[in-house]
Design a protein that fits this description.
By secondary structure, the protein is of the alpha/beta class. The chain has helices at 4-17, 21-33, 62-66, 82-101, 114-123, 137-142, 150-158, 163-166, 203-212, and strands spanning 51-53, 59-61, 71-75, 105-110, 129-132, 145-146, 174-175, 178-182, 188-193.
C-alpha cells in the first residue's frame, strides 16, 4: 500500500531530475532535515486564537471555525508548493472522511492571500476549511515560522515564484509544515513539526493520535 511518504519521495525525485534550481532546493532540504526548531508550542498548552480569512476573504477567527469541536489543524506553505498539494490531496482522500466520522474538524491554514486558499481548495477538491493566517500571527504564536534562505529565494524567483506576492503580508516567511491535534477544550494534545518541507505527517499517525484522545 502506497503512503504519503511514497508520493512525496516521488515528487522529490522528479524535482531533482530537473536540475538547475532544484539542486539549491535539495541543499536547503538537507540543511533543514537536521534542524530542530526551538520555541514550538507544547502539548498541554492552549491553541492560540487569531484572526483568519476564509477563501473568499471573509474575516473570522480560528476559534469560531472550530466551534468548540476537537480538530486536526494543518499548517502548509501555499498552493504553489507541490509537496503541500500532494499532502492536502491525500488528507482529503484518506483523512477527511475518517475525521468526519469521528466528529473531528479538519482545517488547513497557510499565510497566503485568500485567493491562494481558494486555489488550494479547488485544485485538491477539498471539503474541509482552508484558511489564511495573514501575517502568520497564529503560526508565530505556535513557534513554527521560518523563511527560505537567500539562495532558495533566488532559486524560487528564477522559477517565477515570488512568495512575497503569494503571502498576505508580502514577506517570504512561511510556516514549517505542521499538524496539531486539538481537543474540544482548545488544548493542544499533539504537534508534529517538519522543518524539511518535503516530509509530512502520515494520515495513519494522525488518526492514531485522535483515537487515543
Amino acid at each position: 500500500m502506497s503512503t504519503l511518504d511514497d508520493a512525496l519521495t516521488a515528487q522529490k525525485s522528479r524535482a531533482a531530475a530537473a536540475g538547475g534550481p532544484a539542486e539549491i532546493f535539495a541543499a536547503e532540504q538537507r540543511s533543514l532535515s537536521g534542524t530542530a526548531p526551538t520555541g514550538v508550542a507544547s502539548p498541554g498548552t492552549p491553541l492560540p486564537d487569531g484572526a483568519v480569512l476564509d477563501p473568499y476573504g471573509t474575516p473570522t477567527t480560528l476559534r469560531a471555525v472550530l466551534g468548540g469541536r476537537p480538530a486536526v489543524i494543518v499548517f502548509y506553505r501555499g498552493a504553489w508548493c507541490p509537496y503541500c498539494n500532494l499532502t492536502l490531496h491525500t488528507y482529503q482522500a484518506e483523512l477527511a472522511p475518517a475525521l468526519a466520522a469521528r466528529g473531528v474538524e479538519l482545517v488547513a491554514i497557510s499565510p497566503q492571500k485568500p485567493d491562494g486558499s481558494l486555489s488550494a481548495a479547488e485544485k485538491n477538491e477539498l471539503t474541509f476549511a482552508v484558511l489564511s493566517d495573514p501575517g502568520l500571527a497564529i503560526a508565530d504564536a505556535l513557534g513554527i515560522v521560518t523563511a527560505p534562505s537567500d539562495d532558495a529565494r533566488a532559486a524560487q524567483l528564477e522559477l517565477g515564484l515570488d512568495v512575497t506576492a503569494a503571502n498576505a503580508d508580502g514577506t517570504t516567511r512561511l510556516p514549517y509544515p505542521t499538524v496539531l491535534v486539538v481537543d474540544a477544550g482548545g488544548t493542544i494534545r499533539w504537534i508534529d513539526v517538519h522543518p524539511d518541507y518535503t516530509t509530512r505527517t502520515e494520515p495513519s499517525a494522525i488518526l492514531e493520535v485522535v483515537d487515543a484522545l
